[in-house]
Amino acid sequence: MAEIIPGAEPMSVEGGPVGLLVLHGFTGNPQSVRPLAEGAAAAGHSVEMPLLSGHGTVIEDMLPTTWADWSADAEAAYERLAARTEKVVVAGLSMGGSLTCWLASRHPAIAGIVCVNPATRAAPEVRDFIQSLVDAGEEVMDGIGSDVCKEGVEELAYKGTPLRPLLSLFDAANEMGQEAFSRIRCPLLLFTSPEDHVVPPADSDFLAEAVSGPVERVTCERSYHVATIDHDRDLIVERTLEFVDRVTA
Fold this sequence. Notes:
two-stranded antiparallel ribbon, about 250 residues, alpha/beta, about 15% strand, about 40% helix
């Protein structure tokens, strides 16, 4: 495996009895969600922010990975955090939001979840297009990272998008579907950017309607997809910390 990109390192903090698990997105790495992790650590919480398999190094490391790898990483990080805290909240951006929902559907003990522009389903025509590229022998297409409105801010994501791993994400999202989301009974704090060039805002609407627990929605008017490092970064950190305090009180 290649060396980790400077800034993409995982983070583990021994803090108080409340833990926040923070999950990054597809082709991204912890750099894009670090403000959340650092905000939680500064507030005295325990934190786990893993680097998901194949991410944060070179794109070649990601080519053989699938949802099975990333979900295993998320599960392991959750278990580490749950073992040393009394209550856990899980937060994720994009695919990290998909993994957050996957964990919440499997672990009723999770106190609450925070999703930022989560990817919750794949349009059949988009999946078919990606499949056609793979069938034609393509392995990588143009990158989807760094969809950020704020000038001078860049996500340290890969410059390309690995196609087979993307199909794996699409299939996992469609497999989870409404049935898995309906098992989520804990509170959900949901951030959505109306202008998102990666994940349709309708994915957030779908999730909000499918979960069984209470939903609190926040619109990130000034941010694109990677809202966690965009204009609404501080809003997301602030509202998440308030939410964590409330659901773990």
